[in-house]
Structures are given as C-alpha cells and as structure tokens.
C-alpha cells in the first residue's frame, strides 16, 4: 500500500470567538458546557450559511491549531495510570491532524455570525467546515 504524504490544502471559513482563552479553560467535550461561543464566518463563505436556522444541530469542524501534532499514544482524559492508547481510539486534541468535530446547537444566526452552545474550542480557533446533523445519517447502525 502506498501512502501519499502530499500536503493537503484546507481553507479557513471562519474563526471562533469563545470565552475559553487558555487550554485549561475549555471543557473536555462541548457537551460539557452551556457557554455560548460565536463563530464569525468570512464574508466570501457567508452564502454557504443559507438554509441553516436557529435551533439547528450543527457539526463544527475546527483546526485545533494549539494542539501537539507529534503525540500518537495517550491516556483517556482523567486517567493518570494504565496503558497508553493510540490517539485514534481517543478524543484527544493531540493528533497528527488536529481536526475537531463538535455537535453544537445553533442559538442564533445574524449575518455572518453564528451564536452556538456547546463548543469547546478556544478563542481564535480556525473553523474549517460546518455540516448539519441528521438523525437518519448520524445515528450509528445496529449490528
């Protein structure tokens, strides 16, 4: 199997404005906070917001730019002992490509600014995509 190590191109579509300024301020997962964050979408991508509305559940994909990209083994958050696990079996922000996926509730949309509840991203985090949650697609299959 040949693995391509070519660089990929990814565009930042917006930025997070969050009450979480330092790594220790943010919860381990967005579902552990009711704090409101803002996502400011760049003007050239605002047409892509057409069709979303307050009350929608959205997946926000962010680039955790302050995460360590060299770690491949870690422990689950809160575990200080026990075996190390591969980062792909955890939700650790430290990983080769620090892409974060968080399900949020859209509280309000005004122009190019989204007010969302349940985002664990630090202030200034780049946003790389937004996708709607769909129960028919995003619910796990039965075995």
From TrEMBL:
InterPro entries, A to Z: TrmO-like_N, UPF0066_cons_site, YaeB-like, YaeB-like_sf, YaeB_N_sf
Pfam families xref list: TrmO_N
Keywords: S-adenosyl-L-methionine
Domain TsaA-like: 10-142
Entry coiled-coil feature ranges: none
Keyword Cell membrane: no
CDD domains registered for this protein in UniProt: UPF0066
Family: Belongs to the tRNA methyltransferase O family.
Name under which the protein is recorded: S-adenosyl-L-methionine-binding protein
Organism, scientific name: Methanorbis rubei
């Amino acid at each position: 199997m040949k693995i391509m190590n070519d660089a990929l191109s990814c565009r930042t579509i917006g930025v997070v404005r969050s009450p979480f300024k330092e790594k220790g301020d943010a919860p381990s997962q967005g579902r552990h906070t009711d704090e409101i964050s803002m996502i400011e979408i760049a003007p050239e991508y605002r047409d892509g917001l057409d069709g979303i509305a307050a009350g929608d559940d959205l997946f926000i994909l962010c680039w955790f730019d302050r995460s360590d990209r060299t770690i491949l083994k870690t422990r689950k958050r809160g575990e200080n002992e026990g075996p190390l696990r591969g980062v792909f079996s955890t939700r650790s922000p430290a990983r080769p490509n620090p892409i974060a996926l968080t399900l949020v509730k859209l509280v309000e949309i005004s122009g190019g600014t989204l007010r969302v509840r349940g985002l664990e991203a630090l202030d200034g985090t780049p946003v790389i995509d937004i996708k709607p949650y769909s129960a028919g697609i995003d619910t796990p299959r039965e075995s």
